[in-house]
Amino acid sequence: MKLNDLRGKLPIHSSKKYAKRSLSDIRSIAIHHSLTTSGSATAFANYHVGTNDWPGIGYTYVIDRDGMVNWCWDWDVISYHVGDSNRRALGICLVGDFRTQQPAPEQYAAAIELVRMLQNKIPSATEVKGHSEYPGYNWKACPVISMDKFRRDLKGDEVMLDKGVANTIINTWIKPAWQDADRARDEKAKDYIHWLANELRIASGQEKE
Questions:
Q1: Bond preceding residue 103 cis, omega within 30 of 0
Q2: What's the rounded Cα separation, in Å, for the pair 203 and 13?
């Protein structure tokens, strides 16, 4: 992992400071995208301080498109990135707008390696969630990538099913079966068929529906 230590080198507010926490307070690692097609830790720090009037950059780490991991804050700093969950979450931002882009392969690999390292060093950080999975942020298009796949890749599990094959199975057999169950008003069968379709989606790296 390529690491660039920017702690103490980024723009900060002239009077505001972030609060601190014990490492045992950290229960989750939050994954963000920058919502910009390009950018840097310095650019985000300037925006968070100058526009948002925050004490400093909102992320503990920023991962560039080339896989460089920029370390912005010590882990005990409670930066702003997931609202009421800030105290218990450590934020990682991947540079990019994943509504229209995909993470660069080296960037994605760096994120996986970084999260594995953090979970090894901070045992209380058992959860890994996307920004939109935190309370109050289900409206947020962040980080857009499949967090089910990210968590699976984090564990080293491989996606065994091709996306096209999964969708063919769903559209050819599973959806008609669900429609038959719906006509028969068989709620248990509908629930099972819906679960089965989502298992196929997860196994092929897609989001659940």
A1: no
A2: 45
**Reduced DSSP (H G I as helix, E B as strand, rest coil) percent helix, strand, coil of the chain, to 5:** 40, 15, 45
User: Are the C-beta atoms of residues 37 and 100 closer than 8 Å to each other?
Assistant: yes
**CA 70/CA 63 separation, integer angstroms:** 6
**For residue 61, is it left (φ>0), alpha (ψ between -120 and 50) or beta?**
beta
- Pairwise CA distance, residues 176 & 46, whole Å: 53
Contact of 112 with 52, CB cutoff 8 Å? no
Q: What is the pLDDT of residues 37-70, one digit of tens each?
A: 999 999 999 999 999 999 999 999 999 999 999 9
Tens digits of residue pLDDT in 115-133? 999 999 999 999 999 999 9
Q: Taking a C-beta distance cutoff of 8 angstroms, is the pair 89, 30 a contact?
A: yes
- Determine the Cα angle at 38 with ends 134 and 8, to 5°: 75
- What does pLDDT average to over the chain? 94
What does the radius of gyration of the chain's CA atoms come to, in whole angstroms? 20
Task: Give CA–CA dist 162/200, Å, rounded.
Answer: 10
The DSSP call for residue 49 is: H
Q: Which residue has the tokens 């989502």?
A: 198
Check if the beta carbon of residue 95 is closer than 8 Å to that of residue 107. yes
